[in-house]
Amino acid sequence: MTKAAALELIKLTKSYGGTIAVDAINQTIPDGTYTCLLGPSGCGKSSTLRMIAGHESVSSGDIIHNGANITDLAPARRGTAMMFQSYALFPHLSVVDNVAFSLKMKGVDKAARQKQARELLDLVDMATYGDRLPDQLSGGQQQRVALARALITKPSILLLDEPLSALDPFLRIRMRTELNRLQRELGISFIHVTHSQDEALALADHIIVMNRGKIEQDGPPQEVFDAPKTEFVARFIGGHNILGADKRKLAVRTDRMLLASETSPGAMPAKVLAVEYLGTIVNVTVQTIEAGELTVSVGDTAYFRNPVEIGQSVFLTWKPEDAHQLAA
Ligand code: ADP
Ligand code: MG
């Protein structure tokens, strides 16, 4: 099933003086999907998001939303809403008034806007906090309010810039589940910027991997993780060994490599350097002549059936279909 192309970026470019932050990217983001824009710090994720939101001017290229060119439209007229990294709530306004703020600007009367604000607070599980001031809330609660405030404009695209990075690890995972639920309930598109591959894999229907202002790969999470197209993606998404040299590099998932104490045709000899027990898996780091240091992730049950010792000689094999050719 192909969904309608809700958002199209066409040769979208952002330069700041001499720095090209976003380099002529072409990308379609289908309607009603959870998309993560993933990449290391400085690769151009926020610049891309801010151009979509209209908070940053476009240096060249176009942004098309539902067939209309929105490149130069004011932020409030694009059908998008942005949730900022710092939640930027008004400290002197109650939670309800913070959420209702944009409706007040539009001239919606008090009773109507407060009713809508309370409905959205209910949606983000904050119904009982409406009368508090922002500094009487925890970070996680402030974030829910910021979400409600962004959603009250009824956007068809919600833009989130590193929305979970300020939360502690426990809350981060809880909010992750919440964001996923919200997106499915609302059926609108979420475009979520993150530098965390775990976050992107856990949340996204669609991952776009950026590197130095360009898109390296995009696709469903399983595809990006299973079959990275470039060495950059394989290293950034993690969980892969890179084999071979120059133009013939391959990526093989660390959990698809098999470790044996006996050799077999085509097996790669190695020596065990380190063993790291991680609960459900055990990561065995080995030294090879052909490919340097590699990691083999073995399920705990399988590992303890055949444990290895540091310094031991072992042999690595993998199935041909688990080796993915990387673009030169
Ligand atoms: P990311 O969100 O992926 O970390 P950004 O889009 O914030 O990346 O930044 C991309 C590049 O553009 C970086 O090199 C950054 O230093 C530069 N940059 C971002 N904003 C500005 C700005 N307002 N002025 C000058 N350079 C900027
Ligand atoms: Mg950023």
Topology summary:
Layout lengths: L4 E12 L2 E12 L3 E5 L6 H9 L6 E6 L2 E2 L10 E4 L11 H11 L4 H14 L15 H13 L5 E5 L7 H18 L2 E6 L2 H7 L2 E6 L2 E6 L1 H6 L4 H7 L2 E4 L6 E4 L4 E3 L7 E10 L3 E8 L3 E8 H6 L7 E5 L5 E3 L3
Parallel strand pairs: 3-8, 3-9, 6-7, 7-8
Antiparallel strand pairs: 1-2, 1-4, 4-5, 9-10, 11-12, 12-18, 13-17, 14-15, 14-17, 15-16
Task: Please describe what this structure looks like.
- It is a single chain.
- By secondary structure, the chain is of the alpha+beta class.
- Helices cover 28% and strands 33% of the residues.
- The chain has two domains: 5-226, 3-Layer(aba) Sandwich (Rossmann fold), CATH 3.40.50.300; 240-325, Beta Barrel (OB fold (Dihydrolipoamide Acetyltransferase, E2P)), CATH 2.40.50.140.
- The protein has a six-stranded mixed sheet, with helices on both faces. Strands 13-17-14-15-16 form a five-stranded antiparallel sheet. Strands 2-1-4-5 form a four-stranded antiparallel sheet, with helices on one face.
- Strand 15 (281-288) and strand 16 (292-299) form a beta hairpin.
- Helix 2 packs parallel to helix 4 (139-151).
- 36% of the residues are buried.
- The structure holds adenosine-5'-diphosphate (ADP) and magnesium ion.
- Residues 45-46 line the site of magnesium ion.
